[in-house]
Amino acid sequence: MNYRISIGLEVHVQLQTRSKMFCGCAVAFGAAPNTHVCPVCLGYPGAMPAMNREAVVLTVRTGLMIGSTISTYSKFDRKSYFYPDMPKNYQITQYDRPLCENGTVVADGGDGAKTVRIRRIHLEEDVAKNTHFAQASGVDFNRAGVPLMEIVTQPDMTSPEDAFHFLLALKQILQYADVSGCNLEEGNIRCDVNCSVRPEGQEELGTKTELKNLNTFKGVLHALKYESERQMEVLRTGGRVAQETRRWDADAGETYSMRSKEDAHDYRYFPEPDLMPVVLTEGEVDAWRAALPEMPGDRRTRLVRDHGIPEYDAGVLVADKALADYFEAAAKLAQNAKAVSNWMMTEMLRLLGETERDIRTVPITPAALASLVKLVDARTLNSNTAKEIFAELFATGGDPDAMVKQRGLAQVSDRGAIGALVDAAMAENPGPVADFRGGKVAAAKFLVGQVMKKSKGKADPQLVAKLLEEKLAGGGM
Description:
Arc Repressor Mutant, subunit A, 3 domains, ten-stranded mixed β-sheet, three-stranded antiparallel β-sheet
């Protein structure tokens, strides 16, 4: 029997604010444990929360980016549960009156574009971070109270790949809206994944399981592949899928049961008595809508149209906002967008991958890359020398023009000087000369290499090839 998969995601996104959701403690990743805390985020009795307005603005901006309906009246609620990472034994969140409802995200996957409907976007506070050691566990409350936006989808995804591509598309939107750093290593995005399977032809959704706290997109992909196959096997063998919360074990490559799945009534929601409702005016929402940034898809189209780069290049660059920003800054200075794109797509992405760095942290500036492109365009540098300089700029930074002058790296383009090198190479290598004249065209590449070696890489390779062709065809040495 064939089965259909239905997947819905609850994506938790840490917002890019300076302070926490309900207190003035700084949001700072990597600080010493329990140093960014106060009576509010530690849940001391009598401590009163005060709402972070910027978190509301960022949440509404996200909703506007994906076409959500913005609630001009919303409120916060208490969600009761008892875990070590929640100091108050309840979480301040939004239940029946979220800030944003509906909306869509279009994800480009291997099977074409897929539209995923958004059910709601609400705002809450993050919990503390648990760390488990051999004989004990520790709790770091620095993360407790960080503004957390939860984006809940409809169960529109029908394969693990759909979920993976949706997360990539959502990450782009969040980055372009400057809502979140979207740094997976820092836990800026985490997912709870709801998965169910049902026999082909059955309209009613199957019993779902929830996979908690997946913090990588690849983890979501692999966990869903395992869990959907597990559920299918349960049904094939006559069993029933239990509604439960499960944990993904990446090392073992499997999910395992944690507890039975809670329903809404288990959390005993009720309105947060210490916070006023969130009331927005139509004017505020309209102003935020007018200030929205360019969407990733629109930017991809513009890069192709205005800069003349291939659609594939534009798609790769736009996938990371910082990468696209870097490209446009360099292209504007270099006045040769295609050359900048070539450097970005080859050397830049290769070195970023090898060093596992973010382009926002590399020493080579857009201005330096633009200068390097101009040096190549002016034939002051050949491509091999330019690649060597690029690698050094990537590692330590610097000024390409100054490096060329200080080290005497300028390309030799004098016909007389190069002609003498060609003559010397031909005289020292009569065999390849005879091979070329005997019909072995590839022998010319060897001779070009010899000339470049004699020039210590400084000769203009195009002029070398041209002069070699003239001399070999002319019959002289």
